[in-house]
Amino acid sequence: MASRVNAKISLRPQESTMADTQTTNPPNDDVPLALSIFQDRLGYHFKEIKQLTHALTHASIGTEENYERLEFLGDRVLGLVIAEILYRCFPYENEGNLARRHSALACTETLAAIAQSLQIPDIVKMSAAEKASGGSFQANLLADCMEAVIGAIFLDGGYIHCQEVITALWGDKIYTIKQPPVDPKTALQEWAQARKLPPPTYEMTARSGPDHAPIFKISVTIEGFEPMTAEGSSKRAAEKRAAAELLDHLTTPDSTATKST
Asked: Which residues are catalytic?
């Protein structure tokens, strides 16, 4: 069993005081109710609310003030905070184990689950087309939003506030999640290899929607079996969804998966 230290990361006294003051600030009357409630769930109230609105705005809206740059920043901040938490909490684990824990805690699936717990799908702003395609519930989009929110906290309040928010939101996951989930494309390829079949092949069969919010339709095939198709807001998202659906179809005990002729 891996050794761990059950201790909250210590903060310097003056920084802890600042953090306590910031995170308990009362909501601004000018802030929409939904964002005030979200900040309560998040455990942090923004001094500059525009940072948060940018973090919750998808590029499909057609404005440059969207979450993409904040996502870039938040990804790096999250990586550092998680690395520091693991370094302090697991002093006897080697680099390989720490790296696996880090990958699991910072992966798309974990980020999307936390975004769901914060009810980000209810408040993220996106185009009607993106929303109609289920964009607000796509794991990649939710993970991007979560990273953008972390980037926004960093710009608004600094590293210590990011550390506090991440520590609180990730909670027991820091100790219980040890391995990243297997990517559906990887799992499907391993299924094929185990049966001495060629790797799955992916083909884009259609593209629709405007340039700023495209919808891709991808077909995945394993030699000898009927293909499976799925849609997504990016080729990668559609490929992962198609792979997951085909793998589920092939591995379900009562599956009617049949070989193609």
From this structure: 75, 147
